[in-house]
């Protein structure tokens, strides 16, 4: 029988619009659980307090180069408590859906997405993952603009990259990475 008190308690809070961010959060949770962590996956709106956890992973979909409001609200609400925890952040956007010169610009999306509020948390890492993009996810004007940019619809999630990132988090936690 294992001693649960020795297992790190990790909160994975997410804000999703079409489900990609949730699926990435669940995948990270699966890897962390297999590595011995106790993990709770919760929508940002359902998180009242991060104090019961040893570490926090925050993720949000990116719309108009910004995190969703519910994710930013959680960061504002729990800013002081989050600074007391090791924090990893991820964003789910569409760089994998872009081609040509637009794909090169997608690499510059990460610093704009992180923004000052998230940088204040001193995250251990921030990853930008691609999600699923379907025509119905975009307003008509957005479909026209993105088609002109060479957007490719489809599932662009890179599960290998997500798994690798989650393993790095687990390794950090097992090395005692839950303290400052």
Automatic annotation (TrEMBL):
Q: Which PROSITE patterns match?
A: FLAVODOXIN_LIKE (PS50902)
Concerning Pfam families, the annotation shows: Flavodoxin_5
Entries under Gene3D superfamilies matching the protein: 3.40.50.360
Chain ranges of the Flavodoxin-like domain: 10-170
Please give the InterPro entries that the UniProt record associates with this protein. Flavodoxin/NO_synth, Flavodoxin_dom, Flavoprotein-like_sf
Where on the tree of life does the source sit, at the highest rank? Bacteria
Name of the protein this chain belongs to: Flavodoxin domain-containing protein
